[in-house]
Specification:
about 35% strand, 4 helices, RNA Polymerase Alpha Subunit, Chain A, domain 2, alpha+beta, Ribosomal Protein L25, Chain P, 6-stranded mixed β-barrel
Length: about 230
């Protein structure tokens, strides 16, 4: 696992006023804390941090944090607060970690393959888009990949069935559903029925048109004969 480089400055001011001024200057107020050190208030560059999130997502991130004028720390992203519209970063929480100590990290769920049920018209339902795992930072997976190739309509995958190896554990008390293959929705069925009716209507219209054309031709022939 590669640590992402992250620069920060130590800040002295706290409170809503200081945090507002930082955000106005394209900086994000933050804090780093750990079991063996005092919390340190930080200021992070908003543009740099946003680039990191766009390239790596926001889950399972580990950083080599370099605080200006201080020592580097190995940290993980613990919490990221956004505004109501999800456009601006309000606050970042970083947690100092030991690379030899297990941590709890939220990891995204990824689907692999195309199930038999989907080929028959079923729908993939991802019930849990993220799962917590417990492992050492170096063993953290980028995603939890679940192969659904053999799943048919009505089949599902439960958390107990997911094996991430000896070094990664998924803690759970109840064997909950992670992914399921559902039957086609009523809306999809109605759309298909409407399409069938439309095709039938078009076919009938074509037949009526042919009959009308034939009738016109017969009338024209009769008129010619009378003359």
């Amino acid at each position: 696992m590669d640590l992402i480089k992250l620069k920060a400055k130590q800040r002295e001011t706290s409170g809503k006023g200081g945090a507002r001024r930082l955000r106005q200057n394209k900086a994000i107020p933050g804090i780093v804390y750990g079991p063996k050190s005092e919390p340190v208030m930080l200021s992070l560059d908003a543009i740099e941090f946003d680039k990191i999130i766009r390239e790596n997502g926001s889950t399972g991130l580990f950083f080599n944090l370099k605080i200006e004028g201080g020592k580097s720390k190995t940290v993980m992203l613990k919490e990221m607060q956004m505004d109501t519209f999800g456009l601006n970063y309000l606050h970042i929480d970083l947690h100092e970690i030991d690379m030899d100590t297990k941590v709890t990290v939220s990891i995204p769920v990824a689907v692999v393959g195309k199930s038999k049920g989907v080929e028959e018209g079923g729908v993939v339902q991802i019930i849990r888009r993220e799962l917590d795992v417990v492992c050492k930072p170096a063993d953290t997976p980028e995603s939890i990949q679940i192969d659904i190739s053999d799943l048919e309509i009505g089949d599902s995958v439960h958390v107990e069935e997911i094996d991430l190896g000896d070094n990664v554990e998924i803690p759970f008390d109840v064997d909950f559903t992670v992914i399921a293959i559902g039957a086609p929705t009523e809306e999809e069925e109605e759309i298909e029925e409407d399409e069938d009716l439309l095709e039938e209507g078009e076919a009938e219209g074509e037949t009526d048109g042919e009959d009308a054309d034939a009738g016109k031709a017969e009338t024209a022939d009769k008129d010619t004969a009378d003359k």
